[in-house]
Each structure stands twice: as structure tokens, then as C-alpha cells.
Design brief:
Elements: H1 4-32, H2 37-49, E1 52-53, H3 54-61, H4 65-77, E2 81-86, E3 89-97, H5 99-121, H6 125-145
Antiparallel strand pairs: 1-3, 2-3
């Protein structure tokens, strides 16, 4: 019996549920900070990689440098990021999170972490082990068939 269709449907359902529910607190917290999804994406990017060039953010978000510059103006104005001259190229700008920006990102991430913990608490020990094993298999297989870095 081919169980591939049931697996694919279960994965679709999980992906939808996961994205909707795990992101809910994330998005609510971001909105409470008056952040757009692009602004939030920028803060997450800076949290992940540290200081970077405007073009790096543009590439990550898939938008123009001009759009990123306007968005950064608002983030700088709100004290969430700092934009300084690149010491290696005075024409280029480097961007990094401020202490306030890090505080916002930590709050957003804590919301999502609480959802993970609540989900874990809803499972029995056996269910947690089965799920952890299955997720490790899926992560490994996904990395092996994906050319782009995860």
C-alpha cells in the first residue's frame, strides 16, 4: 500500500497548522511593537547574522536597496537599528541592532518559544519521543534534498 499521499497531506496540514499557530504570538508581539513583517524580517536577519550591509538585507528580503533604506530610516528613527559608515568602504553603510532592537527580537522569539513549550506539554513522553525522532528524520532528509542552505 502506498502511503505517500497520506504523508504528503499530513505534512501539508502540519505546515499550515505550524505556520498559523506558531507565528500567531510572534506576529501579535510584532504588531504590538508597531513593526511590519518586513521590519520584523530585518530585525530577525540582523539578530541572526549581526552587522551587515544594506544590500545583504535587500537580498534576504528580496526587495530593492531603496525600499530597504526607507524601512531602515524608520527602524533607526525608532531606535531599533543603528546605521554607520563601513570602515572598509566609506560609501557603504553597515547596519546592526541596537540594545532596544535586541530586546524586541528576544520578546518576539520568547512568544514563539512559549508556543513550542505549550505544545510539548500537551504531548505524553512517548509522543514527544516519537515526534522528536520523526522531526530529526525529516530535517535530515530535507537538508539532503535541498540545494539551498537551511
Amino acid at each position: 500500500m502506498d502511503n505517500r499521499p497520506q504523508f504528503v497531506e499530513a505534512m501539508r496540514e502540519w505546515a499550515h497548522t505550524f505556520m498559523h499557530l506558531s507565528m500567531h504570538g510572534f506576529v501579535v508581539h510584532a504588531k504590538s511593537q508597531n513593526l511590519s513583517m518586513s521590519q520584523l524580517g530585518t530585525l530577525v536577519h540582523l539578530h541572526r547574522i549581526g552587522t551587515c550591509a544594506v544590500g545583504d538585507i535587500s537580498d534576504d528580503l528580496g526587495v530593492s536597496n531603496a525600499a530597504v533604506s526607507q524601512m531602515l530610516d524608520r527602524l533607526v528613527h525608532n531606535g531599533l537599528v543603528a546605521r554607520d559608515e563601513d570602515p572598509a568602504d566609506r560609501r557603504a553603510k553597515r547596519v546592526e541592532l541596537t540594545g532596544q532592537g535586541r530586546k524586541v527580537i528576544v520578546g518576539v522569539m520568547e512568544q514563539r518559544q512559549r508556543w513550542f513549550e505549550d505544545l510539548a506539554d500537551s504531548l505524553s513522553a512517548d509522543e514527544r519521543q516519537l515526534t522528536a525522532d520523526a522531526l530529526q528524520i525529516l530535517a535530515s532528509k530535507a537538508r539532503s534534498i535541498t540545494e539551498a542552505p537551511v
